[in-house]
Write a structure and sequence with these properties.
The protein is of the alpha/beta class and 201 residues long. The protein has a single domain, classed as Zn peptidases (Aminopeptidase). It contains six helices and five strands, in the order ααβββαβααβα. Helix 3 links the parallel strand 3 and strand 4.
């Protein structure tokens, strides 16, 4: 909870809603906090060309396909503080627990924070994960503009990110075993019906 609250304070408004639009100072700061936490957990950190963050705990077979778990830190405007971060910090805590208890795992474990999963700034959702999956071409981002008229391409350029290099971010499917994401419900249905699914033990 301490780590969740540390990230939740970044971008919090007067009424408790959190705003961390992708590539904003607040969103970049939240990623810096995560990198610090990953370093404390002694994970091998890799940041790809769009800014997706991977914290890796090596398994007994380094050549085995990796198990990924995580989510995102960017938010919608006045979003909930657990929408995204609970998946990232939950995955980090699971990996820390595995390390602390010296639990042997065969496959490498990677905590991942994807960039730009919410469409709240440029109208383009699942940006980071789509690039990793090879589901979006860099040219698809050419016309993405935020409500202030700022082009996504210009923001990327200001951060030293070259769109022409983004096609290289796709992970080979053979390098991945599974992906898991702990996430809030995206609606009121389960809560209204008092349904419990996917309870973590």
């Amino acid at each position: 909870m301490r780590d969740l609250n540390a990230i939740g304070r970044i971008g919090i408004g007067d009424r408790g809603g959190v705003t961390r639009l992708v590539f904003s100072i607040k969103e970049l700061r939240s990623r810096q906090v995560l990198i610090h936490l990953m370093r404390q957990a002694e994970l091998q950190i890799h940041i790809d060309g769009i800014g997706n963050i991977f914290g890796r705990l090596e398994g007994s077979d380094p050549k085995a396909p990796a198990v990924l778990a995580g989510s995102h830190l960017d938010t919608v405007i006045h979003g909930g503080k657990y929408d995204g971060p609970v998946g990232v910090i939950g995955a980090l805590e699971a990996v820390r627990t595995i390390r602390e208890n010296k639990i042997s795992v065969r496959s490498p474990l990677e905590v991942v924070c994807f960039v730009g999963e919410e469409p709240s700034r440029f109208g383009f959702s699942t940006l980071g994960s789509s690039l990793v999956a090879g589901e979006v071409h860099p040219k698809d981002l050419t016309h993405a503009v935020d409500p202030q008229g700022t082009k996504l391409a210009d923001v990327l350029s200001s951060l030293g990110i070259l769109p022409r290099n983004l096609h290289q971010l796709q992970r080979p499917s053979k390098s991945l075993k599974a992906y898991m994401e702990l996430h809030i419900e995206q609606g009121p249905i389960l809560e209204a019906k008092a349904k419990k699914i996917g309870l973590v033990t």
